[in-house]
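Issue 218. Parser rejects a valid record. Input:
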Amino acid sequence: LLNISLKCKLSLVDSSRMLDICSGMSYLHSRNIIHRDLAARNLLVTFSDNVFMIKISDFGMSKLMEEESYY
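Output the parser choked on:
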């Protein structure tokens, strides 16, 4: 993430938003969920206590994976 942020010259705010998305996808992966439609249109931006947060939405195409399967 740091390499991408530096290479693309992203601001700290943009890097933080990218980290929110990565953290959300990591959480889904830990629950064996594949989103299958991650796109800007499926990201919600919230603002609370002077902090922006990105949330992943629209799980219509998502899939719960079995322990030993691959997609």
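Fixed in the parser; the record now loads. The chain has two helices and four strands.
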